[in-house]
Amino acid sequence: MQPLTGYPASSLQSNPSCHPTTNGRHRKMRVRLKGINSFTTRLADGTVKTYWYAWKGGPRIDAEPGTPEFVHLYGEAITAKVKKSAETFSSLIDYFKDQSEYTGLGDKTKRAYDLYLKLIDAKFGSMPVGALEDRRARGDFKAFRNMFVDTPRKADYLWTTIARVLSVAKDLARFL
Questions:
Q1: Phi/psi zone of residue 19: left (φ > 0), alpha (ψ -120 to 50 degrees), beta?
Q2: Which is nearest to 121 in space by CA: 98, 96, 156?
Q3: Quick check: pTM over 0.85?
């Protein structure tokens, strides 16, 4: 039986040599990548260079935006990003940063807190929240503070920062 259109069935299949659009241009796909961060700087020779990052503070993407390589490197960075568990000390630090005790601070104070929170997160970030109820956890925090005995002010700030994070966490536990 013959097709109704009068064209052979094989001619309805796409021809790879033809352009996919009527204007002769190749189709481009627009992909919105969440969290992309850029940093523009003037180099020593006077040229302006823009660096692209997967997210603020994330890994640099060494490809031109809009290229498939850029999307590929972004995908690799996102999959390599470690998902934080909601049951760790690191999640308590994130919760603390969302609260008014932190957001109401001045910029200079926030930068100081960020320094100490980064040190605390590196040491205790993977600690399960349930371990905080064990009395030995306090000893771990004291031992960490004593690592900075040669700089007493830093040790005191670390101790105060841990206390503020735990205080906010205690308020969270009370409302749950």
A1: beta
A2: 96
A3: no
Identify the residue whose tokens are 């040669």: 150
Joined tokens for residue 78: 């996102």
Whole-angstrom Cα distance, residue 88 to residue 92?
A: 7
d(CA 114, CA 137): 22
Contact 90, 125 (CB under 8 A): yes
Kindly state the tokens that stand for 124.
């205790």
Mean pLDDT by 10 residues, the chain (176 residues): 46 48 64 85 94 89 90 88 73 88 90 92 88 86 86 89 88 60
Alpha-carbon gap, residue 84 to 89, rounded angstroms: 10
CA dihedral sign of residues 148, 154, 157, 162: negative
Let me know: does 64 contact 70? Beta carbons within 8 Å: yes
Q: 58 with 81: CB under 8 angstroms? A: yes
